[in-house]
Each structure stands twice: as structure tokens, then as C-alpha cells.
């Protein structure tokens, strides 16, 4: 009988422990996932310098792989994330069957073309290999950058979802190497040129204002990075407080002072 009671108590303790472990995050703390540069750096600035005064408890969770961030938000591991632009979110929602919401734009990271082998576009040789991000929205964005600089033309109407199959003319016979965006800086020396996302360029110490062969225009650019959350949390007061801070004058100045044009306030 004693053994039975002990077993029952142990089982109850185990269930209590599991319940405690599964009880989730502190409801008063806003947990935001982000890639490291510049997103987590910007959030850390807000957490250290602005959040407490605004009455916001903020926890920043850093992810090395941005493809994990939307699933983590959908599954309830996060309250919000900050790493993506609206075209990527639309594509991700369709893929995941989610309804995540783009709350507010914060900054733009200009996409740019880099090379370790040539110093200007005209030096790209016939048949040169150009690496582009493999995810659909950023691949289209990269091809639009090449088209804007007269390296290729795209089939009319294909621009927003363009792949190499949508290249209408290619005078230099460029070859396209579709590569995971995070790997593009590491593989820069293996190709003739590479179109690299702004955050990964920053991590690799590449400066689009100095090192790029071509940079996309900020004017009318749809690829502004912003805060994303779930439909249930989009009107949450903590989300609203964070949006106000991210779009405020202090963060704008922080971005301008730290990134010198490599990241632009929205």
C-alpha cells in the first residue's frame, strides 16, 4: 500500500513538473525572435535603453537561421519576430498555412551585388556565375536588381516572382547559382559575383556603400523589414509599445549612427 501511495505521489509530482515546464513564457514579458544583425542589435538597444522607461519587459531571442522564426511564432514560442519583409511573410504564410501579420515597418537593408573578382559591372565576363538567394521572394528581388542594372531583362509581369526561368534576355550569358541566403557571403570567393541580403552582408563586414557593384534603390522599396506577430496579438498593448519604440527618433538615430547607410530607417 505504501509503495502504491509513493508511486501515486511521484506521478503527481511528475505531472506537476511537466505542467510547470509547459506553462510557457512570462505573460508580462514580450518575447521577440530576431536574426542577429541588425535586428537583434536594434532590439537589444531598445531593451537596454528604452523599454523600461516605456513600461515594457522585453526578451530578445536570437536565431541564426531565419527560416525557423515564422514556425516558432506560429507555434507560440514567440510573441513576435523581427527579421523579414512583407513579400517574404506572404510567401511564408502560404507555405506554413499561417496568418501571421506584418504590424509595422522599421528599416530597409539594401540588397546589393558584390564580387571579389571584379570591381565594376562592366568587368563581369561572358558566362560569369552570379549567386542569388534561393528563397523565392529574395531571388526575385535579386533578379530585379540585375535587371535594373541592365545585366538581364525579365519577362513582363514576372518581376515579383521571378526565377532564372523568367530571364528574357541575358547578353552576358550569366549563370545563376541559387544559394541559401546565409551562405552567400561565405561562398563569395567561389563565384564571380553574388547578390547578398543586407543583414548577411553586414555580418560579413561588407559595406554596400563602399563594396557593392550595384545596390537597390530605397525609394518605393517594398522590402522594408518589420515587426510581425499573430492575429491574436496584433492589438496587444506590449506590441504597440514596441512598435512606438522601434519607429521612434532614438532608434532612427541609433540605426543611422551605427550602420552608416548599410541599414536605413523606414
Automatic annotation (TrEMBL):
Subcellular location: Membrane
Cellular component annotations (GO), alphabetically ordered: membrane
Keywords linked to the UniProt accession: Lipoprotein, Membrane, Palmitate, Signal
UniProt main location, coarse: membrane
Lipid-carrying residues in chain (S-diacylglycerol cysteine): 21
Family that this chain belongs to: Belongs to the nlpA lipoprotein family.
PANTHER family: D-METHIONINE-BINDING LIPOPROTEIN METQ (PTHR30429), METHIONINE-BINDING LIPOPROTEIN METQ (PTHR30429:SF0)
Protein's UniProt name: Lipoprotein
Organism per entry: Actinomadura harenae
